[in-house]
Amino acid sequence: MTLRIGPIPVDPPVVLAPMAGVTDAPFRVVCAEQGGGLFVSEMLTARGLVEGNAKSWDMARHHPAERVRSLQLYTSDPVAVGEAARRLVGERGVDHLDLNFGCPVPKITRNGGGAALPVKRRLLAAVVGAAVAGAGQVPVTVKMRMGLDDDRLTYLEAGRIAAHAGAAAVALHARTAVQGYGGDARWEAIAGLKAALPGVPVLGNGDIWAAEDAVAMVAATGCDGVVIGRGCLGRPWLFADLARAFAGRTPLGPPPLGEVVVTARRHLDLSVEWYGDQTGAVRRFRKHLRWHLQGYPVGHAVHRDAGGVETVAQVHALLDGLDPSLRVVADAVRAPRGRTGPVGRLVLPQGWCDDPDAPVEIPEPAGAASGG
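Above: the chain's sequence. Below: its structure in token form.
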């Protein structure tokens, strides 16, 4: 089963979900070393790139080992996203752009971005169309949620609008914005979107914790591929299992801790090399280290110490002290990791839902150059 996004073959049909503070270049590389797929950057603000924000452009870098340079943008400004796409393709050689219409975080939705944007149909069409025009021959995809809540579902209409505006594929996280990361993903919505978009690749996202889940999602929904988010946190080996599963072979499941330690050391080395600052790299790596160890019976003290490492030497010392033969606790395989639970409250611009076709004055502030 091979997915094509524009001219890009994605085999197996697996996409690493863009995750802020997680899918930096070192993590993307260590995942890609385990198995094939498409590995997307952290979410970046288009306005930050257009305004020349140094942090934004630094985060837009790709590692030389990355075969396909894939990057996600968020914005509520068609002009900004068009210019950002043009510069990313022309100056950075980006091969694929994804647009975020699913983030439920208040700092994004209060400016009409992320999960808020599909409410405004004309604005959605303008943003996707501008990105497609700016990217030229480079494919543009979109990732979205089912809607704001169960009373304001937008995914079917938004999918059609995005496809009509030139999106090469549409990915659906089968939860609403108010669900956040709580409750169960509703895979039937993915099936509905696939039925609504004949001829357009549709990808499913939500509650894929093991390779068998991905195969089950495709079988249940007819989707063309899967997007892997929280399920791969600390588990780059999942991409090897996904490659096996989509090739019709039996997944191996979580490896013994000794193999995880080897991957964690590789991840650390990539981080230090990439950032060129041992202190900053190790601090970024802490959460990944704890995720690498999650589910293995290493004890509370090890998890506590992993969250406080300051130097490369301390990381290696901690890893040296682990029993390489340890196996994952069975009930931890599908235990949620990363964010959990619903959004505290949904923050939208005033009157945002009054008229979905009303012209919108772009609420994204001119200084929104935070780098994501």
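Residues 257-275 form the longest helix (19 residues).
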